[in-house]
Amino acid sequence: MTASYIVDAVRTPRGRGKMGKGALTGLHPQELLAQTLNALQRRGGWDAREVGDVIAGCVSQVNEQGANIARNAVLAAGWPQGVSAVSLNRFCGSGLQAVNFGAMGVASGAMDFVVTGGVESMSHLSLGADGGGQDGGNVRLRERVYQVPQGISADLIATLEGITREDVDAWALRSQRQAARAIEENRFARSLFAVKDPATGAVLLERDEYPRPDTTAQGLAALKPAFVAMGETAVGPSGETLDGIALSAYPQAKRIQHVHTAGNSSGIVDGAAVVALASERYVKEKGLKPRARIRAMATLGTEPLIMLTAPAPVSEKALRMAGMKAGDIDLWEINEAFAAVVLQTTRALGIDPERVNVNGGSIALGHPLGATGAMLLGTALDELERTNKQTALITMCIGGGQGIATIIERV
């Protein structure tokens, strides 16, 4: 097993994921990923024929995002027909899993050069668009474990951890402020490229569209909890509510405190991101100057009802594999699916919050499901270079009770 190197990373700006309201809603998801592939190739100047595979995460693989979107994006990009491609789904961890699979491929010697990442057009296909719900409607599975929606899980975590509405709103406000500063100081500029209308060439979007820099503590406090009615919905065979099902597994909570709102949960957006990875042999043969190397990768399953607590233990697993401790990591990217997830992970690992999501996160910038993991990795890499730091850990919670983590190190 040899090293896997990060050659480069690019992403689209995140567009608002509401049809007709966001700048990217008129663009086919295949074209969104295709433009990202071409932006990466233009920057590197390499021959696309040398790409051993394209691996792309995408969660809602139906309709426009069905039919192996990765392969069709390769064709839409005009890349050689000999370039193979595969689409994968590990829910919110899909984009980061694509990177990790690519890193495994080049480190093992199975490939020399691979392009990885993800795409999600949530204006076309929003949450739950594949119709599978939490468990594909498998009644027998529900007899073993009844999985509740993620919003209920996030509020359950907050209740058990003593995380208050004030806590989650404070983190949301921090995310908005950090993102606003990053945008003002052009901290995302290295990775971003302008997305264009493929028919006219007109620029559709060149900056992240979702952040709300005018967000205030008062405005956040005025928002109503998003999952109260959902929690009261009767879904069990004997009329059990979703809150009741969660409490039957965690009776110590007594009553779920619903603290998450649209303001302190991740935003619905469109976007794509890709990362080029190369083997040690390929780097030497081509005289490349990689930006970083993958130091460790890990996935982990956890209890599927509470679902969102895996970032801490999966990060610990990756750290053990790298021979590191949490304090050795300079920058953390913990996906802001919900504010309580980041707060719980930070507390569990004893991380200095000043090292976490320093340029904001998915609450402010948005969470384009299958693309987010690759975006977070690129953001972490840019920030390491900007601040002359060495190591970053990217971690994400995943539906169904999973977590994923990747440690990168500058070279």
TrEMBL record:
GO terms for molecular function: acetyl-CoA C-acetyltransferase activity. Belongs to the thiolase-like superfamily. Thiolase family. Keywords: Acyltransferase, Transferase. The keyword Acyltransferase applies. Residues 5-246 form the Thiolase N-terminal domain. It comes from the Bacteria. The keyword Membrane does not apply. PANTHER family: ACETYL-COA C-ACYLTRANSFERASE (PTHR43365:SF1), BLR7806 PROTEIN (PTHR43365). This is Acetyl-CoA C-acetyltransferase. Residues 288-410 form the Thiolase C-terminal domain. Its EC number is 2.3.1.9. The active site is at residues 92, 367, 397. It comes from Corallococcus interemptor.
